[in-house]
Structures
1.
Amino acid sequence: MELEQCLNFVLTKAQHNVHQLFKAELAPYGVTPGQYAVLRCLWDENGLTARKLADRLYLDGSTITGILDRMEQRGLVEKLVDPKDRRALQVMLTETGRMLEKPLSQAIINANRKALLSIDEKQAEVLKQMLQNIGTAE
């Protein structure tokens, strides 16, 4: 099979391009795409444990720990002992983290629009559905 016909290669190339768009849109705010994903989860449900965040974002423990450490250093989140389980860390948004919701949400809308510029709205919906189907295939 030609490399350019391999699904993994095509998806990886597309993901790289999309990641670069998102990175560029988020850069003015000093937030990475991974940090945005954590913020998005916390805007939806503040106080998730590090483990729940890792599971939600399909990340391993060491990766989420690094992301959260950098976010805490920037004052976006704080890590507290979970009152329900002293072995777990509960991640809470700071005021700075909360204030980024509106501008970062707009940045993500812009990045999505740029990523899908070459296809129409119906094709974009079909693409997302197909990728979700692939993502849940076993």
Note: The chain has one domain: 33-136.
2.
Amino acid sequence: MLSSLAAPALAYCAFQGRPDPKTPRYSFKVVKAFPHDPTAFTQGLVFADGIFYESTGLRGQSTLRKVTPETGAVIQQVQVESQYFAEGLALVGDELLQLTWEEHVGFVHDKTSLKRLRTFAYPTEGWGIAYDGKSLVMSDGSSHLFFLDPKTQKRVRDLPVVDGSRPVERLNELEFVRGELWANVWQTDRIARINPATGVVTGWIDLTGLLRPEARGPEGDVLNGIAWDKTGDRIFVTGKKWPWLFQIEVVALS
């Protein structure tokens, strides 16, 4: 049971922000709250095989881990060397692709053992990465997304992201959801719903109030972490060093 202090607000949240007024707006409803390691600086989140695969950041604290949804318990984990600041995570077949922030290198891990198999390089910073079975796409904190070859991780396409006529900067954690590409905008509580063919933002999801201020610990940070359970059609979100991970429903605003 959730304590009265930490319990999430199981309610609808009003939209706040400055997107294009013509772009559809969405709020949320919490379906369920799951415990989450409050020391985990969440950078990438994937749901598969009934568990979460999570990449956590900060130099000297970065990990790749498997997590039990119901309890938040870490069931398997590997440390990332202290010179690296781990970032986004994507599952491609039986391999997990993990980015690093400023080091221009990504790691390919075996999904089962978490053993590192090889590395790959990219010219920009690494922020978020996602895969939908066909397309592998990466963000670097700019207003551009970069499509990669899933086998070689070489860049094949550059996609500018716009809301109306304005570029959308600080694109961060990525997830494919029902054919759309969702991107958290760093240091905001907003998720952009992006058409992956055109780069046009088709909607904004505002998650302000998802984690109550009094539930945010002294090191609690911003929203970061989106995962979609394709089989169960469930959406999960969390944040850096948040004590809760939430299953949500998206609610259209009139």
Note: Residues 25-252 form a domain with the Methylamine Dehydrogenase; Chain H fold (CATH 2.130.10.10).
3.
Amino acid sequence: MKFVVVIPAYNEMPHIEDFLRRLRDYPYEFVFVDDGSTDGTGERIEEYGFKVIRHDKNRGKGAAIKTGFAYAVEGGYDAVITMDSDGQHDPELIPRFMEFLRDADIVLGSRRKYMTPANMPLDRYLVNRITSTIISLLAGHLIEDPQNGYRAFRIEVIKSLRFERDRFDFETEVLVKALRYGFRLKHVEVPVIYGAEKSHINKWKDTLRAIGLYLEFLFTS
């Protein structure tokens, strides 16, 4: 199965350096979408020899992933893996995602085994548990770790659905729409890795966007 790894990136200097060094050890095709970075992130990625697709201004994580999806469709790929650029996702697990994708349409990384207040910042733990319950109800299917950006998709999922959201709520939209459409979901266990990276989530704006998305799905079920 021919696949590409899509990685959205926005102002990730300097901690992206270690991640880029690690990726050079793997024989996969990595495509970064630089979402309007102003700190030299895109240029540094190119110096490591990786392909970069650029947005001229910051449009949001969802918009960056959709740009990567379009690249995959145009390139004739069979599948897409998405990873975050902050070093939390271990590229060693890529073969595991592809293995699980043989019997599924979407494979979602799950930190459920490790998601305890002892292993995660308390605010992230609480938000994850609440959103997991709500999104699972909306989708009619258990979604263990809806905020996890480490995922694999068959290209049919991308071609069959239309996605409207451009920010972090895009990742919820993808799961709910795909499961309602009838696509198959499997989870693959991934570890919890938290470093010194700074989250780009705006707690207030992105929370309001999430609430709006939940209401939209609630009234269109």
Note: Residues 3-218 form a domain with the Spore Coat Polysaccharide Biosynthesis Protein SpsA; Chain A fold (CATH 3.90.550.10).
4.
Amino acid sequence: MRKKIQTDVSGEIMRYYIADPHFFHGALNTKMDCRGFSDVEQMNEYMLRKWNSRVRPNDDVVILGDLSWGSAQQTNELLERLNGRLYLIQGNHDRFLKNKAYQTKRFVWIKPYEELSDCKRKVVLCHYPILCYNGQYKLDSEGRPKVYMLYGHVHDTYDQRLIDQFQTITRGSMREYPDGEKRPIPCHMLNCFCMYSDYTPLTLDEWIAYHEKRETTSL
């Protein structure tokens, strides 16, 4: 049964999403992401502070993969410090899942893929971007998307540039629908990469707004 959740700021439970924090992964700080921290300890503490400044103990956080590169002890201690009820979409670097010494009990569930309802919209969740995702063509009566594909894995790399190009091409392509009308093909993929949000988990609406702004400024 899919879980519906309120995302109201009046005290209701919130649901947030974030991808690829890579706690304890020093190489990502100095090489691939070039995050700019003096060391991995400073990176970890900054990400923890940003996370807990937003997430309350009873809020839900869906992690779209690659949470921690740390040891069992390091990751267990991290999980005890993170606020929220945690849900993990398994990433390729979540190696701790194969080790019984890790405290997976902190997660409500751990899955490679899931589809959830979020304020009358569906979110397709996977660590890896899915270019043709389930429900892609579904729109509401006003032509707004009813389904979003949330992912991580590619960080802010050339692969993300290719996904940007794919979405532009797809949205600019016309398709004939059963009613005989030709309309653009919907494509709404959201990379929830942690650096995009300054390491802060965001709601679905916030990720939508971020990517709309990102697309506008990149034109």
Note: Confidence is low (pLDDT under 50) at residues 1-8.
